[in-house]
Amino acid sequence: MDFTFTEEQQMMAGAFRELTDDLCAPAALRAAFEGRGESSAARWQRLTELGLPGMLAPESVGGMGLTLADFILIAEAAGRAALPETLVEHAGIAVPVLSALSADARGAAVLQAAVSGEARVAVSHPFNPFIVGADQATHVLVLTDHEVHLLSKDEAKLEGHQSIDALRSLARCTGSLQPGTCIARGAGASAATALAFECGALLTAAECAGLCDALVALAVSYAAERSQFGKKIGAYQAIKHQLANVQVKLEFARPVLYAAATQATVLSGRSRFGVSHAKLAATDAADLAGRTAVQVHGAMGYSWEVDVHFYLKRALGLTGMWGDRSFHMRRVQQQLFSEHLAIGPDALFGVFKELP
Amino acid sequence: MDFTFTEEQQMMAGAFRELTDDLCAPAALRAAFEGRGESSAARWQRLTELGLPGMLAPESVGGMGLTLADFILIAEAAGRAALPETLVEHAGIAVPVLSALSADARGAAVLQAAVSGEARVAVSHPFNPFIVGADQATHVLVLTDHEVHLLSKDEAKLEGHQSIDALRSLARCTGSLQPGTCIARGAGASAATALAFECGALLTAAECAGLCDALVALAVSYAAERSQFGKKIGAYQAIKHQLANVQVKLEFARPVLYAAATQATVLSGRSRFGVSHAKLAATDAADLAGRTAVQVHGAMGYSWEVDVHFYLKRALGLTGMWGDRSFHMRRVQQQLFSEHLAIGPDALFGVFKELP
Amino acid sequence: MALDLHYTPDELRFRAEVRAWMVAHVPAQPLPTLEGEQGFALHREWEKTLAAGSWGMITWPREYGGRGASLIEWLIFEEEYYRANAPLRVNQNGIFLLGPTLMEFGSAQQKARFLPKMAAGEEIWAQAWSEPQAGSDLAALRSTATREGDEYVLRGHKIWSSRATFADWCFGIFRTDPASERHKGLTFFLVPLNHPGVRVRGIRQMHGEPGFAEIFFEDVRVPSAWRLGAEGEGWTIAMATAGFERGLMLRSPARFQVAAERLVRLYEQHAATADPALSSAVAQAVMDAEAYALSTYATATRLIAGGKIGVEASLNKIFWSELDVHIHRCALSLLGAFAELAAGDSAVVGHDAWLDGFIFSLAGPIYAGTNEIQRNIIAERLLGLPRG
Amino acid sequence: MALDLHYTPDELRFRAEVRAWMVAHVPAQPLPTLEGEQGFALHREWEKTLAAGSWGMITWPREYGGRGASLIEWLIFEEEYYRANAPLRVNQNGIFLLGPTLMEFGSAQQKARFLPKMAAGEEIWAQAWSEPQAGSDLAALRSTATREGDEYVLRGHKIWSSRATFADWCFGIFRTDPASERHKGLTFFLVPLNHPGVRVRGIRQMHGEPGFAEIFFEDVRVPSAWRLGAEGEGWTIAMATAGFERGLMLRSPARFQVAAERLVRLYEQHAATADPALSSAVAQAVMDAEAYALSTYATATRLIAGGKIGVEASLNKIFWSELDVHIHRCALSLLGAFAELAAGDSAVVGHDAWLDGFIFSLAGPIYAGTNEIQRNIIAERLLGLPRG
């Protein structure tokens, strides 16, 4: 039983956070929002230099051979930075799915390019009405319950949609799927689709935890500096207690997230409960953080000029993806009340009812 | 359209509040809790002197011929005082039901005595597992969906139960009902039973609003006097804002309560919605008030020595009676989602969809 | 008769009249947002249409373009207004805030000069209260007005001024006594936004439109005829204006009742897959909207009977602003993955603009005195707790 | 290996051992409440039974009657303890609070004198922290200890002392320097409750049992051997004790997991008629109980790796106390009209004592530092907001 991250994991996350502190500094995000500044391709190049796209691919194809538990801190940091690139979808969902389906030649070829970062893969999933980041992708991985397709950007007929988060491009595939793009069918396909869902829900949860962290940090730094009625607003209990409440939510979402990361791919009742719990806890925390950060900033928080809205809007988008609040709450209830999932003090990491 | 109480209504309520300030002063309640002090019969006598038992009976039987809207402030004040006598059940439920069923000779005779206060009538209703105040009653009015019975205390086989509120005696009728005690059957009986339910739910809501008021007053007076860390605890925002939140709930429960009082006996979809709304709003306010009052008092609030627990316990009992939270929330939802009750800005006091 | 919750025949006739007029005049298509230039112009037109029908501000006296209507009629008017899905009021700073202030504090000439054009929708007013250092703490403001002969010279920097980007006039308070502190030495002025030395710069709100503005006053010379009340009386008058803002007029319960009704329809479309808690949350939204409406009727009758609005303005502010956030959070939860779609996207379900409404609702607990300040007021003035 | 959430074979064997012992020893009938005289005596017996099996305090060193167990073993022990529905720990002030404090600050003689009897359940300890004027503001205390030769004379009035009505010893801090203020000049003492001059008076709690007590010290002469640490070191030691109180030991997650599991069963009995929101509220209770457990395992591994418990104690305090209230409010809502029945009434459904649990849960946000104070600590020490 060891509930800590290794030094390697922490160093990797630390290096990534340093990179995003630079790539996604408020001024950079603001420039990106307004279509100025560094290009997405340039940012992607720098993520590639850290080897991030291939973290979860086997070493045999040039990846790092790591697991979701290794990637969870990266996803959290991507959220904290409001990273515009869909690194999480690419490295956390598409690459593991392609790795699992690498018996297919087309899949194997794109996997190689995806690991190096040369290919950028967006993900279409039946639970998501929209594909995120397709405009900068080279490929779209289309998951359905019966087949998995891998489309080049040219093969995918995409219809763009507009998120309130201008850094988040949305699209739908409008064309019908052709046999030639299919890379898996039947049980393999449906397992990949199910796996992608758990990864997607877990990793967007991690991003939301990161967004919550960023929102609290913004509010704290404003409250420590802004004065009203002769003292710093952060010295008022009304402000302190609101922010403390957000922090409590965040601190108790994180262990849930990390525990779910160790078992999300097992696809058991408990793993599904854990992933849904993580998504609910992290999105709840981010929701409260967004509203609280606006309130702490007063009218400033409601303006475009302050950075709060970048994070609030991203959280809003991520909350609805990979299963919205209703989906995950119903899934939790189904496990509890219909599947009679074992709970209680000896069932957290496994069940020991059989012990003498 | 007039949403104010008349001077007469306010004077009546004022006189009653003065009386209960005396009858139910903290020391008196504490004595009653410990079985000392003034007897229930003596307190009842003083309530009788104000004519309260007969407020809702026709003038022809010596009553005041008033309506629920006249009685609502009395019920609220009874709650505020944590009055141990079941005046609300007697005058607000039993007397109007007996008035409606006074064609029956037995009913008519007891009505006369109930109006003068000579008889004290407790109420058994299918929605309530327990009868309140039977131990001091002379009669029990037993309402069922098909028959109404009126039992003298001797005829009723009562099994006592114990509430956490020692000033609230609970009982169940264990004997079977005999034909000789029946005072109404069929439609008249079921109408009386339905009417009693609406009155019961509305008036316990009013009592809860009064309890909320009393709890806020206790907490405010403690917070204005107790010092910690060099200032009055009531000067801290953490305390102020908690109490302000309770007050907001209370202030927006009251108009709901008063509006429901004007229509509770109509037995329409809207009147049921209004009564359930009132019960939910008032019990929510009392629940928050109870917990907040304990918190504001700190360890004192958790002790027997402070009066908070009298009111908190009473609210706890009343919340479950005459339809608990689940019942009323489901009834509201049924009106909204199944019966498609007209709502919206022109449906509050009636529906004007037919206007040009 | 007390607690008589029935409309009189006159009130019913009045409702029918409003309803018929709205049916005939409300634009079939919703207007573009009034935060943009084109939308602002169209909303200005709508104010003129309203005024032409004498519906601009029905509670005003007839001499200023009103109907001398009762508060109950006002509530009925608002119910029908929102029921008809009529446009937002671009004129609200004038008719709800400055108008009543002028009636109380203005000279006869000022009333004659300003009120009719305000009622007619010909001059649209902006607030100029806040300053960069003075948000909730209005008394901390620093803009000055220096008397020179029969004129004043205004200097300073106002911010968070709603409507100012496209409005005609603004009102605000300036420090006339440079030695004064906090609430003293302040004076209330009315200033045209196209006056020499006045510079307006839009501030984009979260959704990207310039719903706020900054106003820079650079040696702006104004005649004393544009001073409202006496020198040094600014704080008193501003507090009266703020009272009107928190009072009965500005947050009609009908707005929330309409939103709650739409929420019920939205819930019904998603009931099969929604978190079970949402059914109760939606029911709570309906109940709270009705509670707010009932409370408003109660306050209105009390005011008609000669009462004054006091600390209940603070209770109202907290209740409606939290209700508005609640309604829109429920809606976004029901919309799930569709919640994030920008207004106007082709995949937006219906035309209910829930996302814009949600963003807008987040301003509710902040403006017109943050909810934290309202809670202080309730605790200190209503409950009698000691000052911090 | 990092994030390895599996028990080792040794940990599994340990769980089996605890489970077997509990099955053999936990009383079949729940004991009467330890707030009453008879219940207290029975709980005292149970402590001796635990100690006889070396289960009194497994994380203590073997020399003081413990097993030198790891924190993970401790959590497993607690899981099995609550799973077996074993009695509440009447000995908690000793084993969780004073015990660790003595190990850190006590002399060799003091450790030898007090720890074994504590571990054996032979001496039950009460806290004597609070005073009538010093609730959350512990530094405001006034009780004094005056040195006379090799003795001290204690005078004063302690209150809200849990267990004191029937316990053997108490611990608390007294002002040894009469000129001192606030945190200075305080000294930590251990005093037998039957010592001459000590008078204990029970305070009834909301449910009517004397779960608190006042302790009056009237010229109580104690030898300096009962002083813990140096003169003037009282505040430091008391803060260490408070740290143990807020730390890992006292609020085992297993307690809330068991309660949440029972709540699910209760919900299932009432699902057909419950407010739909309760299904989500009950699910939330289960999730929160698991979140608290996971967080505790994370803290335990961090402590095993040499970390210290800091401000997370405040985060924990808020989370478990609000969770406990939430669980019990859900239960009372499900029980409806049966919720108000006093414990022991014949119509009480099941034996789960939900009402007593609810009342007890209301103390959670108050004791061991109110949640308001915990929020200040989080805001100031974790988030770095300015002090009030």
Task: List the topology elements.
The complex is a heterotetramer, with 2 copies of chain A (356 residues) and 2 copies of chain C (388 residues).
Chain A: H1 7-23, H2 26-33, H3 40-49, H4 68-81, H5 87-100, H6 105-116, E1 121-124, E2 131-132, E3 139-143, E4 147-152, E5 158-162, E6 169-173, E7 182-185, H7 186-223, E8 227-228, E9 231-232, H8 237-263, H9 269-297, H10 308-320, H11 325-338
Parallel strand pairs in A: 1-3
Antiparallel strand pairs in A: 2-6, 3-4, 4-7, 5-6, 8-9
Helix pairs in contact in A: 1-4, 4-7, 5-6, 5-7, 7-8, 7-9, 7-10, 8-9, 9-10, 9-11
Chain C: H1 9-25, H2 37-52, H3 71-83, H4 92-105, H5 108-119, E1 125-127, E2 144-148, E3 151-158, E4 169-175, E5 186-192, E6 198-203, E7 212-223, E8 227-228, H6 234-246, H7 253-270, H8 276-304, H9 312-335, H10 354-363, H11 371-382
Parallel strand pairs in C: 1-4
Antiparallel strand pairs in C: 2-3, 3-7, 4-5, 5-8, 6-7
Helix pairs in contact in C: 1-3, 3-7, 4-5, 4-6, 7-8, 7-9, 8-9, 9-10, 9-11
